[in-house]
Specification:
141 residues, 35% helix, Nucleotidyltransferase, domain 5, 4 helices, five-stranded mixed sheet
């Protein structure tokens, strides 16, 4: 049986918070801390987390930072899901948000299969969307 390691990422412009949930109901859930949001640091993270026979499954919330992290992780051969924040299950009354909590929650929910991935555009499509968005916002000023 395959033992997947589920990695939750809370991504911001400068930093990425990282949490890992091991497979299984009783699998360990651990917050690893923060790394820089750059390709070198992400590559080192993958090397650090990689174990023989244990594929990595990453997930993070869609947001203003785009899909560059998704592209890098999938190019490295890892599974990566991007989820819409509005589709993430939350407990009523749980309003305190921290990067640590968000990364840990994403890893746990990803392990449980509770997250719904969104469509990820390729680099050309994303660039076209950005260009159209810029043209629309420039026309309104």
């Amino acid at each position: 049986m395959e033992h997947t390691r589920f990695v939750g990422l809370d991504i911001h412009k400068e930093r990425i918070s990282v949490a890992v949930a091991e497979s299984g109901r009783r699998g360990r859930l651990e917050y690893l801390g923060e790394i820089a949001n750059d390709p070198g640091a992400i590559g080192k993270l993958c090397d650090h987390l990689r174990r023989p026979g244990q594929p990595l499954a990453f997930c993070y919330e869609a947001g203003p930072c785009g899909y560059g992290v998704h592209r890098q992780l999938t190019t490295l051969g890892h599974r990566c899901d991007v989820v819409a924040p509005s589709l993430i299950p939350t407990k009523p009354g749980n309003r305190v948000k921290t990067d640590r909590r968000d990364a840990t929650m994403l890893a746990r929910l990803h392990r449980a299969g509770e997250l719904t991935p969104v469509w990820v555009p390729d680099a050309d499509h994303e660039a076209m969307r950005d260009l159209v968005g810029c043209a629309v916002s420039c026309g309104k000023s």
